[in-house]
């Protein structure tokens, strides 16, 4: 038989095993996303030192006082920018959670407004910025000689994701995490189970291509992880999450979840190929996947991570998957260039992991 034919036959075997334990597998696929959506979607602690860009077109004492008041405490961290264009560029690239513009004439009282642009794709951070600016505006008054003395008013504009909510933020990261976890804890465990039961040795004595065996394991892991993530998506939507990009965005979500499952199923096979005990594999898999999920921004934006961790987020494939999924769910659109780039990164990750898995499995199988 051909590689594809052998792979299909072996995949049917895996699916029959899945069907035999259908109730257990469905419950397992339901439990993880339900628990996390309910727990994480219901609360969230306010972040500290949220970065905001401040554009000061006034430079008078009242404006400087306003900025000094912003810097008091640890709720926001002020980044000064010369122009609004530069500040908005930082906002669009997720380097800051908000932009505050102090207009000319602020000190003289001819302009008693500050303009705030918020990125609600980071709902918790946006809420912190909004609350801080409102608080400072109530404390700082305009010049008493102004024609309309009184408190400074805040004009808020939502630059991105105006209809977003914290639940959509959580669900977006959770989908990617469920897909990666489901892949790692399915593909690797089935390979090790076959090894311990003697099935692997039996397969290797047949004319079945070794690569076909790996493809079937990767395909089954992708199926299981995608199923868990799709169930999580359905539960999240029922619970109140939204997909701002509509039907097209929904299809794009399915695509990225599938790519994450494919890549991490390949990673799982690479890890399991050299592991002899289930306990050892479980320890390695958990130690690897959990930090990757956090460093990929599954729960907090990567911009809020310590600076020494940022290089890890750049090479972490989950970072790109999480960003793409969140853009679809919260911002309402995903540029074609971003879609292509993210897809290419995840496919490249899959190809590399699949190549490593095949090399390691080939070397290990010769010793069985």
Fill in the keyword field for this structure.
5 strands, five-stranded mixed sheet, abc type-2 transporter like fold, alpha/beta, elongated, 13 helices, about 375 residues
Give a verbal description of the structure.
This protein is of the alpha/beta class and about 375 residues long. The protein has helices at about 5-20, 20-40, 60-70, 85-90, 125-140, 165-195, 200-205, 210-240, 245-275, 280-295, 310-315, 315-330, 335-365, and strands at about 50-55, 75-80, 100, 115-120, 155-160. It has 13 helices and five strands. Helix 3 (about 60-70) links the parallel strand 1 and strand 2. The longest helix has about 30 residues, at about 165-195. Mean pLDDT is about 80; it is low at about 140-150.
Write a short abstract of this structure:
65% of the residues lie in helices and 9% in strands.
Strand order of the largest sheet: 2-1-3-4-5
Q: Compute the gyration radius: what is it?
A: 25 Å
Describe the largest sheet: 5 strands, mixed
* Total domains: 2
The secondary-structure class comes to alpha/beta
**Basic shape:** elongated
Helices and strands, in N-to-C order?
Answer: HHEHEHEEHEHHHHHHHH
DSSP summary, beta strand count: 5
Distance between the termini: 23 Å
User: What is the tally of helical segments?
Assistant: 13
């Amino acid at each position: 038989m051909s590689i594809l034919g052998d792979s299909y036959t072996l995949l049917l075997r895996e699916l029959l095993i899945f069907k035999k334990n259908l109730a257990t597998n469905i419950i397992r696929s339901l439990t993880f996303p339900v628990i996390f959506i309910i727990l994480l979607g219901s609360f969230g602690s306010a972040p500290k030192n949220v970065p905001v860009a401040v554009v000061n077109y006034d430079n008078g004492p009242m404006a400087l006082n306003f900025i000094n008041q912003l810097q008091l405490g640890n709720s926001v961290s002020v980044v000064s920018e010369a122009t609004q264009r530069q500040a908005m560029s930082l906002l669009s690239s997720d380097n800051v959670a908000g932009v505050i513009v102090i207009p000319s004439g602020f000190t003289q009282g001819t302009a008693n407004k500050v303009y705030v642009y918020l990125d609600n794709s980071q709902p918790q951070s946006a809420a912190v910025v909004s609350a801080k600016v409102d608080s400072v505006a109530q404390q700082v008054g305009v010049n008493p000689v102004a024609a309309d003395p009184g408190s400074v008013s805040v004009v808020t504009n939502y630059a991105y994701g105006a209809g977003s909510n914290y639940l959509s933020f959580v669900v977006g990261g959770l989908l990617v995490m469920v897909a990666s976890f489901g892949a790692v804890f399915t593909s690797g465990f089935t390979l090790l189970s076959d090894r311990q039961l003697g099935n692997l040795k039996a397969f290797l004595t047949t004319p079945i291509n070794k690569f076909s065996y790996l493809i079937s394991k990767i395909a089954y892991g992708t199926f299981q992880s995608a199923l868990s993530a799709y169930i999580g998506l359905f539960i999240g939507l029922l619970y109140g999450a939204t997909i701002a990009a509509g039907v097209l965005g929904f299809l794009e979500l399915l695509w990225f979840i599938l790519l994450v499952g494919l890549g991490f199923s390949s990673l799982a096979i690479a890890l399991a190929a050299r592991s002899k005990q289930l306990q050892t594999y479980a320890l390695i898999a958990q130690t690897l996947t959990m930090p990757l999920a956090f460093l990929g921004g599954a729960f907090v934006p990567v911009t809020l991570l310590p600076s020494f961790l940022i290089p890890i987020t750049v090479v972490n494939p989950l970072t790109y998957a999480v960003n793409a999924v969140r853009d679809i769910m919260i911002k309402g659109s995903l540029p074609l260039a971003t879609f292509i780039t993210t897809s290419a990164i995840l496919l490249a990750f899959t190809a590399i992991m699949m190549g490593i898995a095949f090399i390691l499995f080939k070397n290990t199988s010769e010793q069985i």
